[in-house]
Design goal:
3 helices, 3% helix, mainly beta, five-stranded antiparallel sheet, 565 residues
Length: 565
């Protein structure tokens, strides 16, 4: 039986306590106030700390299969020393949890009158562990095992009662928490304007729509997470959208923010509910139309893992990077070589990009899709005339190693794309996803050790996401990052910090190099979200750079991570 549960605790709150802004020009980032006492906790997924979205599997003792021993004479019960009835056979109960993407933490509880037990654990991948236990009626133990690949496994525990010659067996059906990516041609699943995937009507304020994912557009029944580009349009008022597997919970987070009359998109990676659906919840008080396009999905089976990269500029039409110099004509397309460039190897199945439209002469949208295919009726980035706007996208790569980008406006626009990672069959990191966005930072409100206050202009905010480590097994973090209370145009860069958190505490941290890539772009007075996939480096520390010339407020919701172990 599978139970999904949220396991955040006070340690998570402590992990984000004492955050402070660090001037980019300083000789070395100072230790944020208050971090010395609390920084050791961290989010710490898979290392004994709180595991958001952890799963638990169980097989009760009643499922134990018994083989009577010869010493008991084949009877089900025997007389104890005082004439009481006792069970000479072992009874086994099993419980498994998911401490990391590829591993199981197995708890075995064995009840038996025997003093000596031979215990064998067959993990379902061809390996076994054996132990001899001396029991006085009860044996409890925890055993961890790491699988080479994500997937479903039948864990079988066999207990031999050497005193009575009996044998007991119980089996636990276990699924790793990690899942791998399968590319999907961009396809529209939901459009409330047209009655696609839901009723033809706006989603009411504080209302929701249920989108069936499994079985739609050939998405398999066993899908665990789905990648959607979600667009809000025709909004009657300001609000936000939350995308999650169920209707309830996670009220503090958001995936998408919109203003009245605005058309805005954001990519989401969301777990699929047990019924194969996801819920799109309108957090505003007024109605809005919602659109959702699928570009891929995850399953707990071997497909494509993830490899994070330091952001690399792959396309800039203003400079002639990756394509010809000059704005892309209205309804024009161009191809981009992805495989074999910028750290992306050949044979990848998809690339993770931050795709930006800038200097557009009219409203429109960009669409990124695999080469060799007709342009789909989907959008990746929506923009207004003169607007600079970015969106995170996962784009399947064509057989020739290329992707195609189309300008869906009738007039010219510049295009910028930064590669932040890729998916391939050789990549090891598997996705571990929360049940919905979970707020971990909001500079507008007080947190433990840090008073509310904006991120100053031209500074960076280092945030510890992992426990004190010099070898984090988290290859990438998935964050919904929102900038608000903006006074002027600017952009945010989100990158891995080269230091560890002890370096900051000890005063030995080096000044990170200011990045040139952008993760979120904004204009004065705008509230702008974007999904960010970034490494935390060797120490699990992420830097948020306010590259603008005015202070900003920032909100960060944790969505998922990619883990190698």
């Amino acid at each position: 039986m599978l139970r999904r549960r949220l396991m955040f605790s006070a340690a998570l709150v402590a992990a984000f306590a004492g955050l402070a802004s660090v001037p980019a020009a300083a000789a070395g980032p100072a230790v944020p106030p208050g971090h010395g006492a609390v920084a050791a906790t961290g989010v710490n997924p898979g290392k004994g700390g709180p595991l958001p979205g952890g799963r638990t599997f169980s097989s009760p003792a009643e499922r134990t299969v018994l083989t009577p021993g010869s010493r008991s004479g084949g009877t089900a019960r025997a007389q104890g020393a005082q004439g009481a009835q006792v069970n000479p056979y072992p009874a086994i109960s099993l419980e498994g949890s998911t401490p990391t993407a590829h591993s199981i933490d197995l708890t075995t509880r064995i009840s038996s009158e025997a003093a000596d037990l031979d215990i064998t654990i067959a993990w379902g991948d061809g390996t076994t562990d054996k132990v001899t236990a001396s029991s006085t009626g009860y044996d409890r133990r925890n055993t961890q095992h790491k699988y080479a690949a994500v997937g479903s496994y039948a864990v079988t525990v066999t207990v031999k009662d050497t005193t009575n010659g009996a044998e007991a067996v119980n089996r636990l059906d276990f699924v790793t928490s990690g899942s791998e990516y399968t590319a999907h041609a961009p396809t529209r699943l939901l459009d409330t304007r047209a009655g696609l995937g839901a009723a033809q009507a706006k989603v009411a304020g504080r209302g929701s729509v249920v989108l069936q994912v499994a079985g739609a557009a050939k998405i398999p029944a066993g899908v665990t997470e789905v990648v959607l580009n979600v667009t809000a349009t025709n909004a009657a008022g300001a609000g936000h959208v939350v995308v999650q597997p169920g209707k309830d919970g996670f009220e503090t987070g958001s995936n998408l923010n919109y203003a009245p009359g605005q058309t805005v998109a954001n990519q989401v990676i969301v777990p699929v509910g047990e019924d194969g659906s996801v819920h799109l919840i309108n957090g505003g008080w007024d109605s809005v139309d919602l659109i959702a396009d699928v570009t891929g999905y995850f399953t707990a089976s071997v497909a494509s893992g993830y490899t994070t990269l330091n952001p690399v500029r792959a396309v800039d039409t203003r400079e002639g990077i990756g394509t010809a110099k000059g704005q892309v004509a209205g309804y024009g397309t161009f191809g981009v070589d992805m495989a074999g460039r910028g750290g992306v190897p050949k044979g990848v199945t998809a690339v993770a990009l931050n795709l930006t439209a800038t200097n557009p002469r009219a409203a429109g949208h960009l669409t990124a899709y695999p080469s060799g295919q007709a342009a789909p009726s989907t959008s990746s980035v929506n923009f207004a005339a003169g607007q600079t706007v970015a969106n995170s996208v996962i784009v399947p790569v064509g057989p020739d190693g290329k992707i195609t980008i189309r300008n869906g406006s009738w007039d010219r626009a510049d295009v910028v794309a930064d590669v932040v990672g890729y998916y391939s069959t050789d990549s090891r990191a598997a996705l571990v996803c929360l049940g919905g966005p979970y707020r971990v930072l909001d500079t507008r409100i007080d947190s433990w050790g840090r008073k509310a206050g904006p991120v100053p202009a031209r500074t960076m905010l280092p945030v510890q996401f992992d426990a004190d480590t010099t070898n984090s097994d988290i290859d990438g973090w998935v964050l919904n990052t929102t900038v608000t209370n903006t006074k002027d145009a600017g952009f945010l860069s989100v990158t891995a910090d080269p230091n560890t958190w002890p370096d900051y505490r000890n005063g030995t941290a080096v000044t990170p190099q200011r990045p040139v890539s952008s993760s979120v772009n904004w204009t004065a007075g705008a509230t702008v979200p974007n999904l960010v996939q970034t490494s935390g480096g060797k120490g699990g520390v992420i830097d948020f750079w306010n590259q603008g010339w005015q202070d900003i407020d920032m909100i960060v919701d944790l969505i998922a991570w990619y883990q190698t172990s």
